[in-house]
Amino acid sequence: MSRKHYPAEYREQIVKLARAGRSTASLAREFEPTEPTIRSWIAAANGTVPSEEVELRRELRQVKRKLAKLEEEKAILAKAAAWFAKKTIETPDRSSSS
Description:
Elements: H1 8-19, H2 24-30, H3 35-46, H4 51-89
C-alpha cells in the first residue's frame, strides 16, 4: 500500500476547515486523507504533537515499508537460488552414444 505525501499548503487548508467546524469524518469523506491523518495534522498544528515527532513517525513508516520490500525481495532470491541449485544437481547424464 502506497502512502501519499500531501503538500504543506493542502494540510493547512484541511486544518483550517476543521477549525471552522467541519468534522474529521466529513473531511475524510470529501478529501483523500483518512480521519487519523487529519487528526494528526490538527494536533501538529495545535502544537500538541511536536512536529519533529510527526516527521519521525513518517520516516518510521517509510523505513518499515522499505524493510518489508527488502524482506520480500530476499525471499524471492532465496527461492530462485534454491531452484537454480536444484537444476544444477539435476543435470542430465552426458554419456556419449558413439
